[in-house]
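User: Could you go from structure to sequence for me? I need the amino acid at each position, not a summary. C-alpha cells:
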C-alpha cells in the first residue's frame, strides 16, 4: 500500500473529481484524475489503482440514473468499445500514454472550436445531430483511451453532445457506457498483472470516496440549467483538451 502523504494529497481530490464527474457531468472531469495522480506515481500504476474505485462509482451512478440511459445509443457504442479495449490490451506494453493524451486532446479542442464557430455563424445553440453510425468511431476511440488512461470521456461527450439527448439522458448514457467498459477492463488489467497487492490495498483505502463523489455530482446535476450544463461540458472539453495536449507534448520533452 502506498504511504506517501503527497500521493494522497493529489489522489483524494482526483478520486472526488472523478466521482463528481460520473455523478452528473458525463465523465469529462474524470479525465484529469490519472494526470493528477501521475504527478507522484506512474500513469500505469495510477490507472490500475483507479479502476476498482471506478467500478464502485459505477454501481452508485447506475443506481442514481437507473433506466434513464438511451438504449439505442448504447447498442452502438458498447460493441465498438470492445474493439478499442482489445486494441489497447494488445498495444498496452508498446503504446505511449503521451501519444494517447495528445491525440484525444487535439480532437477535443478541434471539436469544441468547430462547435463554437458554427454556433456563432448560424446564430443558433444547436448543430445538426451526428448520425448514430458515428457512435462506432466514438465508442472505439473511447474504449481504447479509457483502457489506457481512463480518458474515454472526451470521445463519448463529443458524440453524445450531438445526439438528441437532454442533460439527464446524456449523463445517464455516459454512465451506462463506462460502467460496462470499466467492468470489462477488469479482465485485461488482471491478465496484464496490474492488480498487485500494493495497488489493491491503495484502492481499498480510497474507495470510500467513490460514493461521496458520485452523490455530490448527482446533487449538482439537479441544480443546474440545461443551457448551463451543455455550455459547461463544452468548456470542460476544451479545458481537458488543452490539459491533455500539454501533458502529451511534455511527455516527449
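Assistant: Here is the amino acid at each position, in order:
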Amino acid at each position: 500500500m502506498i504511504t506517501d502523504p503527497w500521493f494522497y494529497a493529489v489522489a483524494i481530490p482526483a478520486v472526488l473529481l472523478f466521482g463528481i464527474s460520473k455523478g452528473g457531468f458525463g465523465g469529462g472531469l474524470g479525465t484529469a484524475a490519472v494526470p493528477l495522480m501521475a504527478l507522484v506515481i506512474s500513469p500505469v500504476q495510477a490507472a490500475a489503482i483507479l479502476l476498482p474505485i471506478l467500478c464502485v462509482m459505477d454501481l452508485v451512478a447506475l443506481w442514481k440514473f437507473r433506466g434513464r440511459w438511451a438504449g439505442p445509443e448504447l447498442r452502438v457504442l458498447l460493441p465498438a468499445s470492445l474493439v478499442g479495449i482489445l486494441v489497447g490490451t494488445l498495444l498496452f506494453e508498446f503504446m505511449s500514454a503521451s501519444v494517447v493524451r495528445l491525440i484525444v486532446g487535439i480532437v477535443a479542442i478541434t471539436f469544441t472550436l468547430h462547435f463554437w464557430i458554427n454556433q456563432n455563424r448560424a446564430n443558433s445553440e444547436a448543430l445538426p445531430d451526428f448520425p448514430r453510425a458515428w457512435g462506432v468511431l466514438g465508442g472505439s476511440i473511447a474504449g481504447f483511451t479509457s483502457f489506457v488512461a481512463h480518458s474515454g470521456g472526451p470521445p463519448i461527450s463529443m458524440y453524445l453532445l450531438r445526439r438528441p439527448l437532454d442533460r439527464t439522458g446524456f449523463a445517464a448514457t455516459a454512465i451506462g457506457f463506462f460502467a460496462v467498459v470499466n467492468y470489462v477492463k477488469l479482465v485485461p488489467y488482471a491478465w496484464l498483472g496490474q492488480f498487485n497487492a500494493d495497488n489493491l490495498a491503495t484502492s481499498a483505502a480510497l474507495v470510500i470516496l467513490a460514493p461521496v463523489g458520485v452523490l455530490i455530482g448527482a446533487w449538482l446535476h439537479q441544480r443546474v440549467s440545461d443551457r448551463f450544463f451543455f455550455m459547461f461540458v463544452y468548456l470542460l472539453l476544451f479545458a481537458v483538451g488543452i490539459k491533455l495536449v500539454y501533458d502529451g507534448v511534455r511527455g516527449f520533452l
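One structural detail worth keeping in mind: The two ends are 31 Å apart (CA to CA).
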